[in-house]
Specification:
37% strand, Jelly Rolls, isomerase, 4 helices, Cupin_2, metal ion binding, seven-stranded mixed β-sheet, 317 residues, mainly beta, GPI/OXD
């Protein structure tokens, strides 16, 4: 039986040219990581750590203070949790329909069909982890028109083939490739301006509330019966010291463990490994395994597994 694949936090390989805003002031210092699946990167420079299909994609964004990710949308659900730092998430055509500040461990489920962005408002380098529904992550990113216009002013053009071309490197659109067309005003009407009470009340859960509910058994955070009642094509649960068990179990499809707090001991038939916050573990289907805290103190991890639900659209519909 194949052993789990572990991607260590310290071994993550960043890409600084993953998206169209890579040269835009205010966004040009962000680092993007593709951990599981092909992701939605527009750059051939993006390294993919695990290519095995899981039914979802997992990535991450690392940003210094005051660095933001530009307004975009996806065709499948996008879930973020904060690994390090303090982050402001905002949404709407111009990013002013609403916002929420999340701390370490907090999670947000962002529906399809709205423009969203995020900014590190902490005092140090921060990291957020992202789960996108579907193996193809919805076929790419849909950018707010002003993002594409701003990028062109700084040398980056997105082709209608979904690939980036950098005039600073002497690149131009190949023959037969046209610039990605901007969304028209009529098309933009399909991207609603959701009020804060809808997004926050429905799609945000705070770390300490989840910990309280996961004191004895794991809590389903996102799922058909979860704290966030959504069916984005995957289910997210939270385990703590009190709800972890040494009893081995297995799944009929690959699953993912993402430690958030504390150190964990993962065991399986014939092996063991020790995990730290920021590590990502892909456990193969059918492999009996167990994960328990290995040291005293606070301990929590997220567990992600695909479901048979469509990867999108999300709860908005």
């Amino acid at each position: 039986m194949t052993a789990p694949i572990i991607v260590r936090y310290g071994e993550l390989q960043p890409c600084k040219t993953a998206f169209i805003d890579a040269h835009t002031p205010g966004s040009n210092q962000k680092e993007n990581f593709t951990i599981i699946g092909g992701g939605v990167s527009e750059s051939a420079d993006q390294h993919v750590h695990i290519t095995t299909p899981h039914g979802f994609n997992i990535g991450a964004a690392g940003q210094p203070p005051k660095c933001r990710n530009s307004l975009h949308s996806h065709r499948t659900a996008e879930v973020f949790f904060v690994l390090k730092g303090r982050w402001r998430f905002f949404w709407g055509r111009r990013g002013d329909a609403g916002e929420v500040v999340l701390e370490e461990g907090d999670i947000i489920d962002i529906p399809t069909g709205i423009f969203r962005g995020f900014e590190n408002i902490g005092s140090d380098y921060g990291m957020i982890m992202a789960v996108l529904g579907g193996d193809d992550a919805g076929g790419g990113v849909i950018w707010a028109p002003q993002v594409i216009e701003d990028a062109a002013d700084h040398g980056l053009v997105l082709g209608d083939n979904g690939k980036l071309y950098d005039s600073k490197k002497g690149q131009s659109l190949p023959e037969g490739v046209k610039p990605m067309p901007l969304l028209t005003e009529e098309e933009l009407k399909d991207y609603p301006e959701l009020t804060p009470d809808r997004v926050i009340g429905w799609g945000v859960r705070r770390y300490w509330d989840m910990v309280a509910l996961a004191g004895k058994t794991p809590v389903t955070v996102i799922g058909e019966t979860g704290m966030i009642r959504d069916k984005p094509g995957f289910e997210v649960s939270l385990l703590t010291r009190g709800s972890a068990t040494e009893e081995p179990h297995e799944h009929d499809r690959p699953s993912v463990l993402m430690p958030l707090r504390g150190h964990w001991r993962l065991t399986w038939n014939g092996g063991e490994a020790f995990l730290a916050p920021g590590d990502t573990v892909s456990v193969p289907a059918g492999l009996r395994h167990a994960a328990v805290p290995s040291m005293e103190g606070e301990a929590a991890l997220y567990h992600v597994i695909a479901t048979d639900d469509p990867a999108g659209p999300s709860w908005l519909d």
